[in-house]
Amino acid sequence: MKQISNMSRRSFLLRSAAVGGGLLLEVTLPKSSVAEAEQASSQAETSPEVTAWVLIRPDDTIIIRVARVEMGQGNFTGLPMLVAEELACDWSKVQAEYASTSEHLRRNRIFRTMLTGGSRSIRDSQEYLRTAGAAARLMLTSAAARRWGVQVAECVAENSLITHTPTQRQVSFGAVAAEAATLDIPESPPLKDPADWTLLGQPAQRFDIPDKVTGKTAFAIDTRLPGMVYAAIAQCPVFGGSLKSVDANKIADMRGVVKVLPLEDAVVVVAKESWWNAQQALRALPIEWDFGEHAQVSSDSILEFLREGIQLEKAPVSRQEGDIDSAFTSAATTIEADYYAPYLEHATMEPQNCTALYTEQRVDVWAPAQNSEATAAVTAETANVPVSRVEVHKVHLGGGFGRRGLYIEFVRQAVRIAKTMPGTPVQLIWSREEDIQHGRYRPVALVRMRAALNASGEPTAWSVRQAEQSIFSAVRPHLIRDGVDIVGVRTFADAPYAFPNMHMEYAMRNTHVPPGPWRAVAHTHNPFFRESFIDELAHAAGQDPYQFRRTLLQGPQASKDLAILDAVAEAAGWDSPLPEGVHRGIAVQDSYGSYTAAVIEASVNGAGELTIHRVVTGIDCGYVANPDSVRAQLEGSVVYGLTAALYGEITIKAGRVEQSNFHDYRMMRLAEMPTVEVVLKPTGGFWGGAGEPGMAPLAPALCNAIFAATGKRIRSLPLKNHDLRPA
Known about the structure:
The chain is an alpha+beta fold. It has 3 domains: 46-194, Aldehyde Oxidoreductase, domain 4 (2-Layer Sandwich), CATH 3.30.365.10; 223-292 and 346-437, Aldehyde Oxidoreductase, domain 4; 312-344 and 440-721, Aldehyde oxidase/xanthine dehydrogenase, molybdopterin binding domain (Aldehyde Oxidoreductase, domain 4), CATH 3.30.365.10. It is 30% helix and 22% strand. It has a 7-stranded mixed beta sheet with strand order 10-11-8-18-15-16-17. The protein has a 5-stranded mixed beta sheet with strand order 13-23-20-19-14. Strand 5 and strand 6 (161-164) form a beta hairpin. Helix 1 crosses helix 3, helix 12 (372-383) packs parallel to helix 13 (409-419) and helix 15 runs parallel beside helix 19. The longest helix is centred in the N-terminal third of the chain and has 28 residues, at 121-148. The chain is globular. Mean pLDDT is 94; it is low at 1-42.
């Protein structure tokens, strides 16, 4: 088997195109399968590229390239469906493969973007992917027409066959692909009317699931290369601290130890045979840290810092409508409440890891990153080489949730290690403890809300003061406008509720704990605050929480929020009787271009034990590529969202994270899972996201159900910190 450094660029690209997982799959294949890979490589050599997205083999196999990454959300299938619909091909002949990052850069970013995040994979690329499919169809049809000497308008493509309508002559896509590849690519081919779609909107078996079920999928952490060594890392427990000293001699004789590499704020141990050898040696290594100025910071001191923000005389304004002061002065009833949400960690099943191979010719990287283009840039910068000498091998991710998007420090670390060992592949893996204690956390937030009701119980004013850490102040400063993080104020600044008077403020309170995008970002804690408080207003007004929301969701801007709220309430049987002791809660939220709502049924016994019986969750995301994937996304959101509401909490003591593994940062268990019913109500006319929107209404719907069951209003998360015994 050839070493990477001895492979020609052409050979590498052919193999990448042939086996989908690139060189990773080649080197993990058993020797008996190498011949199959060579045969696939030969096939790739005769697979014309009709467009950058579409390759067609003579046997009619269609390769559709995917520029984003699959991390469980289903876009490795959904994105090819967009192309295939307009291509008019036989879906059973379609295969998906990752687009090469190096080719993307060499060809002037031909695949547009390689970023996966923000529930944008399908909604942001649907138009140009459908256009790519339509262009390829027109090119294939034109090639067939030229072959027959007929007018293109007389030819129709369907199910991977081109038919000359007057004579009923037919030719397959594979037979004319080489000729089609020589034609100019049409810039604006006509797209199908959605009413004519035959593939989009229909359930399709996902390409990634069979191999995941059988254990064949090779994630980044499964990378194995000849002569590979393994690296374990310990980073300063206090964020912002540094390494003071390390005594490498103490572990020099331990099994497999190759080297100890001190970094500015970390220590790496490299070992042979296995990562376990490296990790055991690391645990035995005497390390002395300089914890720096943040060693006394705690969750309590951070909360006090947030309270100071709530109590500021003035703060930057994120929304202003009407005369808030007059409305409160004339109010019949005033309601005020503070709500709090803690730091949360992503806890991806696959911990942070990266395999890097540095040679004089190039640098190869295998990493579970949500943006392979950014990964290439970080690799090039760290290795001090041109980006043209970097190859990022794209692989499926064992979870992402935003952790592997903006922040890929594990890539930089692996490349730094590999650069000290030219020609030797190095696999760096963070332990679970390292992963949880050195994350990029969803920020803490404290929010004070006030509202005024008139004598009829109608809301007349709403004020909000947010005090929270900004994710983007350091990394995306253009998202900070007049002191307001425009992402952090979503749910409030764009609320669809028709209050005649509103005043909303944002007090940025940045701490030393590193923040980062966590699945749905501001649409996790802000909906908990908003929708719980709206429930408080409904009860203060003596109105049904569902009907109270309906009266506030008036006007064209709120029509889709109202429609999905109605659909979910109807599916849940909002007005139907429940078993004794079971109560309902409801919430609605739009996010990432989609509209969601949820109804949760729960009970609390005399001992304060909570049972979640049923979750009815719905979404209007406009158009749907693969409804099975959207349904799975909402079901997965229930697990992830309820886990956060019930147990999710990262706490700080002595400047460091207290939690370390799943014993103290736990997940929901099978026995705790409720029945989940998903309502898909795509209304068409737009493309919304699906990976994150389902998170938004869950926590408030649950807490509103708990209030209905117990009379206790939950104003802080997680629920594990509360005594839920009925009031």
